[in-house]
Each structure stands twice: as C-alpha cells, then as structure tokens.
Specification:
This protein is an all-alpha fold. About 80% of the residues lie in helices and about 0% in strands. The chain is built from 15 helices and no strands.
Length: about 375
C-alpha cells in the first residue's frame, strides 16, 4: 500500500486502523523502555563492581605496596596520628601514587572513550592517533635538549599534545568522513614523532637517555601531592565546565553530521570542543606520568564488553582509574626486589585484555 493510500485509509477508517495497528506497535513501544532499563542496570552493576575493584586495589597497595606495613599503624596514620616511618610512607609515597594514578587513569579513560564514541572506531585513542606521541616527543625534547625536569617538562608535554591534535584536526577537518581521515592523519603523524623520539634518544647522554626511557614507559615514581592537585584541578575544571556540554553534543554527532546540523548544532564548533576536551583529558595525565600504554585504548572497550552496550564515557573514566590502580599494585609486588613502572604492567597485560575483547566480540557477533 502506498503512502497516500495509507493516509486515506487512516482518514476513512480510524477505528479499524487503530485496532489493527495497536497490537503490532504495543510490543515495540514496550520493548524500548525495557531494553533501556536493562542497559542502565548493567551500567550501574558494572560501575559498582569497578568501584569495588578500585577500593580493593587501593587498600592492597596501602598495606602491601612494595613493603608490608602493620595494619594497626596504617589505620593510625589514616586516622590522623603520626607514626614514625609509616606516616612518611603512607602520606608522602603511597597515597600520592594512588591519587595521581587514579586521576591519570580516569583522564586517559575518558579521553579514549570520547574519541572512540565519536569516531565509532576502537582504534581511535590518544596513544594510537598521535596525541600521546605529541606529548611524549615534546617532553623528550625538553628533557634532552633543554634539560628540563620540573613543571616546565609538564608544560612542554601538554603543549605538544595539543599542538599535534590541532595539526591532526586541521589535516582531517576538510570535507566529510572526518573520522577516518583523523585516524589516518594521526597514524602518520605518530609514526614521524616516533622517529623523532628515537633520533633524540641517540643524541642523549646515557644517564639522560635512561631517565627518558623510564618516563616514556609511564611511571608514578615522581608522584606527589602537587601533581595530584594539578591533575585534580585541571581535569576537574574540564570535567565540570566542558564535559557535560561535550556529552550532549556527542549524542547529536553520533546521529551523523548532516542530521546534527539539521537539529541546530554547529558541527564545526562541536567537533573542535570535543577534540579539545578529549586531547586535554589525555595530554594532562601524560604530562605528569608519561604515556601509560593501553589505558586509554582499553577502558572504553572493556566497559562496552561488560555492559553489552555502547561505550559509557564516565564509566570508562572509572575503568581507567581502576586499571592504573591495579597495575600500580602489581608493579610494586610482582617481583620481590624490583619495582616496575606502571606502564610496563599496563602494556604487558593490556594486549591479552584486547585479545579477549576481540574474541568475545567475535563469539557473540557484536563489536565493542
């Protein structure tokens, strides 16, 4: 039946049409809210288990991080008492590491999830599309050529990430199909920056090159309360002021740029703000801890696999914080006489997680 014939039937036979269409449309109308409710339930359940894992990892590291501490002394320090030796270990070493690691992991998780949701591609994370390499190359240049090792190093890393992101966005923003163009441009820029990093390492002294390699693996060794406050203030400001706007615009962009424009969204500005927020959320942690492999890459797909739905941005942040905190515990305890950089653990265990996600997606017939 054509559209005009259906319209005529609706005008001439309203009761029969309604009675006929009612049973057919009722199940569909009831199924959508039920599906959404189940999805929200899975998200809440996953968030609860992820938060529990985070708390357990924090507690384990406080008591058994590198050297086991008496439980009574740990509780005394956490209650505000001064315990010689233990107070320094808890307040000046372990708690700052936990704070910096959790904040850095949350920022990386949100950054990767934003790119992956927007571009619809699990490869679209800061450490794949070149943003991480931009921050790393700028930091390596500052360490080797300029001799920086303080807040100036962090500033160089952040500026490098933002500069590379702007370059990649400029190369990919013309025309349509911005997403695939951005990924390809990021891969190309990232390859060039890797070559630049390798060249800079060949020009460095042995001790400096060792420090640079340690930073490039991603480490929490230099964590302190100043770095924790820096991450909390910067990531918190972006999360409060800009992230809610980006999340609303992202839902419209996922409908397609033409549809989003028809709904009144300024697509160019929306993409620019989204890229800035995603880059800042990834570059700020890299500036403090160095690049931690696979955190931004895996946080989003892990949440999608656990919730059996689309990537949840905020849950990805919680997942990233949990990944780094758990990795920090294993980095301190995996070998009795050796404390590993956290990036070594995330890199070593990130690949099997990725393979598991891919196998699970293939077996269920759905992607992450």
């Amino acid at each position: 039946m054509s559209t005009s014939e259906m319209a005529a039937a609706n005008m001439t036979q309203p009761r029969s049409t309604t009675e006929t269409a009612g049973p057919a449309t009722a199940p569909a109308s009831k199924a959508a809210p039920a599906l959404a409710a189940r999805r929200r339930s899975r998200v809440r359940r996953t968030a609860l288990w992820m938060a529990l894992a985070l708390v357990l990892a924090v507690a384990a590291y406080l008591f058994w991080g590198r050297d086991r501490l008496p439980a009574a002394e740990v509780f005394q320090v956490l209650s505000g008492e001064k315990v010689p030796g233990t107070s320094f270990i808890i307040m000046s070493d372990r708690l700052p590491r936990i704070a910096v690691g959790a904040l850095a992991g949350a920022g990386l998780g949100i950054s990767g999830a934003l790119f992956q949701r927007w571009l619809g591609n699990p490869l679209a994370s800061p450490d794949v599309i070149g943003v991480g390499y931009g921050a790393s190359a700028a930091a390596v240049f500052a360490m080797i050529t300029l001799g920086y090792a303080d807040w100036k190093l962090n500033a160089f890393a952040l500026a490098g990430g933002l500069l590379v992101a702007a370059l990649i966005y400029w190369l990919s923003a013309s025309g349509k199909r911005t997403g695939p163009r951005l990924i390809l441009a990021g891969l190309a820029i990232g390859a060039m920056l890797q070559a630049l990093i390798q060249y800079l390492l060949t020009q460095a002294q042995v001790n400096t090159a060792s420090d640079v390699m340690h930073w490039l693996t991603g480490s929490l060794a230099s964590s302190n309360w100043e770095n924790a406050l820096l991450l909390l203030a910067s990531l918190g400001a972006i999360g409060i002021l800009l992230l809610p706007l980006v999340l609303r615009q992202l839902k419209m962009l996922e409908l397609g740029e033409d549809t989003a424009a028809a709904l009144g969204l300024h697509v160019g500005w929306a993409r620019a703000i989204l890229v800035f927020v995603a880059v800042a959320m990834g570059a700020l942690p890299i500036a403090v801890t160095g690049p931690m492999a696979f955190v931004a890459f895996l946080a989003g797909p892990i949440t999608a696999a656990l919730t059996r739905g689309p990537i949840n941005i905020l849950l990805s942040g919680l997942t990233g914080a949990t990944l780094v905190t758990v990795a920090n515990f294993f980095a301190a305890n995996l070998f009795a006489d050796l404390s590993l950089p956290v990036g070594v653990i995330t890199g070593a265990f990130g690949a099997p997680f990725l393979i598991w996600i891919l196998v699970r997606a293939n077996s269920t017939g759905s992607g992450a």
